[in-house]
Write a structure and sequence with these properties.
The chain is of the alpha/beta class. About 35% of the residues lie in helices and about 15% in strands. It has 13 helices and twelve strands. The strands form two sheets. A seven-stranded mixed beta sheet has the order 1-7-6-5-4-2-3, sandwiched between helices. A five-stranded mixed beta sheet has the order 8-9-12-11-10. Helix 6 links the parallel strand 4 and strand 5. Helix 3 packs across helix 4 and helix 10 packs parallel to helix 13. Bound molecules: pyridoxal-5'-phosphate (PLP). The site of pyridoxal-5'-phosphate (PLP) has 14 residues, from helix 3.
Length: about 375
């Protein structure tokens, strides 16, 4: 088995059988011709149920993640919605208190009457243990969390989850298998917003679910994808593969710059707190050092003076772009509390950074002038 970097460098580069093109073109077709006897000689019938480019994406991500199967979706939220649809009703779910707010909103809007849900501080294993019920079916977790970068011990959570006969889903969007391998640590499912680091250029929406093993639940996810139609379209799959080819060097630079920026902010007089697990005083530093290959390209910090001061800093940046999302080549800054629903626990003085590929000195100079 090639190393992940080698696998990624060749993503989508198995020569096109028709022409020998090293990068096969996207198969932008909605339907496939039958033979005279009515059969489908190439195994494809209709674009919703199967497409060679989408399959190539699914096979590549599955191999990268070390899974037994992968399903590609139109977005990360389509992936989340399909997993929730595939779960039997009447069960109990455990979610991190600071789960990505889109997932929390989706459950409230579409699944409120199907499941009971308990928010838990997943960094506190005693609290997690106490939250299980007989009908707990799924533990959903994210580490580092968004936007506070809390670190959850995945191996410990997987052991606890399995001791209660439940399943563990890890949202791996912020890390990709290059930084963290949830399946090796015991997760049953990994979810990705492909929109972020995997595709990596802020130009495609996509999502995916990878399973540790073939199971009835995974088959159900696949079948809802095909019948429900929240599929990754072939051009998005092609763009995602193109992005994945450069993931390893991108992420290396993003992580190195994020570490340097975290240290710069940590020493700045106008900054109250920096949340990045690379910092030795971060409460999750030791666990992150153990379970991650690097500390990630995302960080957040709290500015003295709360809301108004944070908004002023965001208004003054010139290299960072003021936008939501993450994982692209361009660095982004976001006042997170103002995009999250009312009542969110995100501090008003918090700014979230997604570190891109600009020279780190330019990013530090920009933050320095913005902080004044
Ligand atoms: C951690 C995480 N999971 C899931 C999603 C949803 O992904 P998408 O925007 O592709 O639907 C996001 C989007 O920001 C995210 O940050």
């Amino acid at each position: 088995m090639p190393r992940p970097e080698t696998l990624l460098a060749h993503a989508g580069c198995s020569p096109d059988p028709a022409t020998g093109a090293v990068v096969a073109p996207p198969y932008l077709t909605t339907t496939f011709e039958r033979a005279e006897d009515g059969s489908y000689p190439h195994g494809y019938q209709y674009g919703r149920t199967g497409n060679p480019t989408r399959e190539q994406f699914e096979e590549t991500l599955n191999a990268f993640e070390g899974g037994a199967g992968c399903v590609g979706f139109a977005s990360g939220m389509a992936a989340a919605m399909t997993v929730l649809q595939a779960l039997p009703a009447g069960k109990h779910l455990l979610l991190p208190e600071d789960v990505y707010y889109g997932v929390q909103r989706l459950i409230e809007e579409a699944f409120d009457d199907r499941f009971s849900v308990s928010p838990v501080d997943m960094t506190d294993l005693d609290a997690l243990e106490a939250a299980f019920r007989a009908e707990t079916l799924l533990v959903w977790t994210e580490t580092p969390s968004n936007p506070m970068l809390h670190i959850t011990d995945l191996q410990a959570v997987a052991d606890l989850t399995h001791a209660h006969d439940a399943l563990l889903l890890v949202d791996g969007t912020w890390t990709t298998p290059l930084l963290q391998r949830p399946l090796d640590l015991g997760a049953d499912l990994v979810l990705h917003s492909v929109t972020k680091y995997l595709a990596g250029h802020s130009d495609v929406l996509g999502g995916a679910v990878v399973a540790a093993e073939q199971s009835g639940l995974f088959d159900h996810v696949r079948s809802i994808q095909e019948t429900g139609g929240a599929v990754m379209d072939p051009f998005s799959a092609w763009l995602a593969l193109r992005g994945m080819r450069s993931l390893a060097p991108r992420l290396r630079v993003q992580c190195a710059s994020a570490r340097q920026i975290a240290t710069f902010l940590d020493e700045h007089d106008r900054v109250e707190t920096v949340h990045h697990p690379s910092l030795p005083h971060h409460p999750g530093h030791d666990i992150a050092a153990r379970q991650m290959d690097d500390f990630g390209g995302m960080l957040s910090f709290e500015v003295q003076g709360a809301h108004d001061a944070a908004m002023e800093v965001a208004a003054r940046v010139e290299v960072f772009r003021r936008a939501t999302s993450l994982g692209g080549t361009e660095s982004l800054i976001e006042h997170r509390a103002s995009i999250e629903p009312e009542g969110s626990a995100t501090p008003e003085g918090l700014l979230r950074l997604s570190i891109g590929l600009e020279h780190v000195d330019d990013l530090i100079a920009d933050l320095s002038q913005a902080l004044g």
